[in-house]
Amino acid sequence: MRGLVGLAMLATLSAAAPAFATGTEEQRAACTDDAYRWCNDYIPDAYAVERCLRAHIGGLSPACRKELGGGRRPKRG
């Protein structure tokens, strides 16, 4: 059931958000959860979602940060 919900969310985001729809499968897979976590209010506006994700770059998953060009966070220490 969880996989079906995730697939439905991915399909919705892909269909409603052209920036994600034109991205690679890896980009969509990396950022879909973060988009729903941080930027749900901006869906389906793909450009607003991307701006929101970039604004929350420090809280995104490492995979999504990488896809957005944010790379890894520097280690503290």
TrEMBL record:
<keyword id="KW-0732">Signal</keyword>
<protein>
    <recommendedName>
        <fullName>3',5'-cyclic-nucleotide phosphodiesterase</fullName>
    </recommendedName>
</protein>
<feature type="signal peptide">
    <location>
        <begin position="1"/>
        <end position="21"/>
    </location>
</feature>
